[in-house]
Write a structure and sequence with these properties.
InterPro entries: DUF6247 (IPR046214). This protein is mainly alpha-helical. The protein is 72% helix and 0% strand. Helix 1 runs antiparallel to helix 2.
Length: 117
């Protein structure tokens, strides 16, 4: 049995490094590259100022999760639908959407195996 193309990841999940994540973002979501660069610069500045690698770890985790979701078209579409529902729905729909977004993010964090701690 074959899996439909929409369910196949666009690219393999890259290792969680700045260079591989940048390359992945350029392939699957090139419009997000300016945000990637801006957030990387901010994380690097925060890390230098505080002599702490936590901001860079958070950056890498955030973007590894982003890549995990965006490289899977059906998962990315579900995520966008829930975001739209959270923004445009009534209070009950927004609560349900927030719960679903949280569940998807939890699954993505578990899949990439990174922690911000």
């Amino acid at each position: 049995m074959t899996t439909p193309a929409a369910e196949q990841p666009l690219i393999p999940q890259p290792p969680a490094t700045v260079a591989t994540l940048r390359q992945a973002v350029s392939q699957i979501a090139p419009a997000s590259l300016p945000a990637f660069t801006r957030e990387l610069d901010q994380a690097a500045d925060q890390s230098r100022q505080g002599s702490d690698l936590a901001p860079l770890r958070r950056f890498i985790t955030q973007w590894a999760v982003y890549v995990y979701i965006q490289r899977q078209p059906s998962l990315a579409a579900d995520f966008r639908r829930w975001e739209d529902t959270a923004e445009a729905g009534d209070a009950a729909q927004a609560r349900q959407a927030a719960a679903e977004i949280g569940r998807l993010l939890d699954e993505a964090h578990a899949a990439v195996g990174l922690s911000t701690r």
